[in-house]
Amino acid sequence: MGNPMARCLIEAGHQVTVHDLRREATTNLCDLGARWAETPRAAAEASEVVFTSLPGPAEVEQAVLDPSTGILAGLKPGGGYIDMTTNAPSVVRRIADACRARGVETLDAPVSGRPPGMTIMAGGDATTFATYRPLLACMGRNIFHAGETGAGCIAKLVTQYLGYSNFVTALEGLLIAAKAGIAMSRRPS
Fold it and tell me: In whole angstroms, what is the distance from residue 161 CA to residue 166 CA?
C-alpha cells in the first residue's frame, strides 16, 4: 500500500524520500524522482512529514521509536508523522505521546481501498488533521476526521468488522439457498 500512496504524492508534485526494508520495492518510485533513504531516520531527516504504511503494530513501533534509526530520531520539532497502517489504538496512542514529547504532530490514518480513491479515517488533533488533509487528499477520495488519537484505528477496525460480517452473512445466505435446492452454478439466460 505504501508504494502507490507515495506514487500519488510524487504525481501531485511533492518531493518524496522513501525507505523500505527491501530497497527494490521502491525502484519505481525512485525512477519517478523519489530519493532513497537508508533508514527511517534518514527519511525523516529529509522530510517535513513522514508517512508509514507497514504490516502491523510491531513494525510501526520499530520504525518510529528505534532510538538510533527510527523516525522520531530524525524528525525535527514542528514536523509531522502520519501512520496509515491498520494499527492498534494503544500503539498509536503510545507513539502519539512520544511524538508530542518531541514536538511532532501526529495522526493515525488507516485506509480502506486503493489509492487514489481510497477512504482515509484519521484520528488526532483537529488542527493537525486540517493541516495535513491536503496531503491525504493526494492519496484518497473519502477523508474523514474520526476524532481523537486512536479514533482512526478504531474506525478502521469497525469497518473491517462490518465488512467481514457482511461477507459471512452473504455466504450463509448462499448456503441456505443451495440447501433449498437453488443451483448456484447456473448463469442467467
Answer: 9
